[in-house]
Design goal:
Elements lengths: L12 E6 L4 E6 L4 E5 L1 E2 L5 E3 L2 E2 H4 L8
Antiparallel strand pairs: 1-2, 2-3, 4-5, 5-6
């Protein structure tokens, strides 16, 4: 964690934990971890890289 990572289409992630505010940490199938940080748009919807989180990650859980 701590650097930018590309999560490719079709990658299976398992929810691991959140920091309770803006980041969800997932475990990949290979046992490594990846953190996904969210921002909220003007409608208070979670976004990642200016896109709605629900459009990027199927079944995503919001951290906040």
């Amino acid at each position: 964690l701590g650097s930018d990572t590309i999560i490719t289409n079709g990658t299976k992630l398992t929810f691991y934990r959140t920091n309770g505010t803006d980041t969800v940490i997932f475990q990949r199938e290979d046992g490594t971890y990846v953190g996904v940080t969210f921002e909220l748009n003007s409608n208070y919807e979670p976004i990642i890289n200016e896109q709605l989180a629900e459009n990027l990650l199927d079944g995503i859980q919001y951290a906040g």
